[in-house]
Amino acid sequence: MKKSTYLIGEIGQNHNGSVDIAKLLIDKASQSVYDPLFGKTLKAWDAVKLTKRDLNEELTHSAMIKPYDSPHAFGKTYGEHREALELNDEQHFELYQYAKAQGLDFVETLCAVGCLSMLRLFQPDKLKVASRDLTNLPLLEAMAETKIPMILSTGMGGEKELDHALETITKHHENISILHCLSQYPSEYENLNLNTIHFLKKKYPQFEIGYSDHSIGIAIPLAAVAMGASIIEKHITLDRTMKGTDQAGSLAPNGMWRMVRDIRNLEDSFGEEKMEVSQAVETARVKLERSIATLRELKKGEVVHEEDIHLLSPGDGFKWIEKHLVVGKSLNQDITENEVIYPSMLS
Which pLDDT band, with edges at 50, 70 and 90, does 2 fall under? Predict the structure, then answer.
């Protein structure tokens, strides 16, 4: 039986610089999902993820002081915008404690070596390497030295870049997960190449393989799980119309609910690599399958011939493969036409 998919709700910068908004998102992610169709309560998201930047190691000085006139801007320059969206180490620690109290794992994307300063306060359950930093080997080295499990996102890299990253990390530990990803926001479906999941599972069988999604909706994450992804990461928000560049492409609470519902139900559907008659279809089988029945009225003492029978529902009598148990046998009672022949009717 397939184990439960590890679902990461990526808050990222969708908290808009507010600890309170981040807590509301954690609340939403921690809620179990009730599926009224079969009256089942399903497992919630497994983790939330935040992102930490060190603005001294983010962009060039000229880029940071450049005017930023986007409708999603939180400052007059890009540097002011980025600063408004940053939470400090203590705030990350507060949210870590809040998430753990809600039963969620806490994952941190660290974008610079300086961000490791938060480890003096707490240890995240996993450290995430953003796609942009797959080739940032000094950062990967510093993160790997902590021995904290790591997740690599491959959205901007190929096989060569991934191999270099793995070579750097595995000098320190091998608790690594690899997420297929496309760093296009939103991702166009023809560019997703989900078959990369199969490639990664074959080439790197020692690591967990998952998928980080930037497409719209929930269809692609479901397909990724069906293809063997054991981790799914997806942006989450309180409201897709909120200010912020990632909000529109994220899952709002109803979408969060639907994705968890569908993935958890999908997991239950996998079953085993075998074919057999399920007990779940027994009622339908008796009602709808065909049984050997009389084609004409037959009298007691008559011998049944093949031209005397055909197939009708219900399916609680002889099957056609068993006609040798009927043809050539005599009847111990009268049977009207178009009635199922049961063993008790045969001498």
Answer: low
Q: Give the pLDDT confidence of 11-55 residue by residue, as tens digits.
A: 999 999 999 999 999 999 999 899 999 999 999 999 999 999 988
Among residues 269, 268, 240, 233, the alpha carbon closest in space to that of 254 is found at: 240
CA distance 10 to 7: 9
- Report the b/e string of 40-54 with b at 16+ CB within 10 A: eebebbbbbbbbbbe
Which tens digit of pLDDT belongs to each residue from 209-224? 999 999 999 999 999 9
How far is residue 52's CA from residue 329's CA, in Å, rounded to a whole number? 82
Nearest 5°: the CA angle 131, 133, 137 is: 135
Query: Considering the entire predicted model, what is its pTM?
Result: 0.87
Q: Which CATH class is domain 6-269?
A: alpha beta
CA 85 vs. chain centroid, Å, equals 28
CATH architecture assignment, domain 287-345: Alpha-Beta Complex (3.90)
Residue at 185: amino acid letter = Y
DSSP 2: P
Domain ranges of the chain: 6-269, 287-345
CA 118 from chain center: how many Å? 29
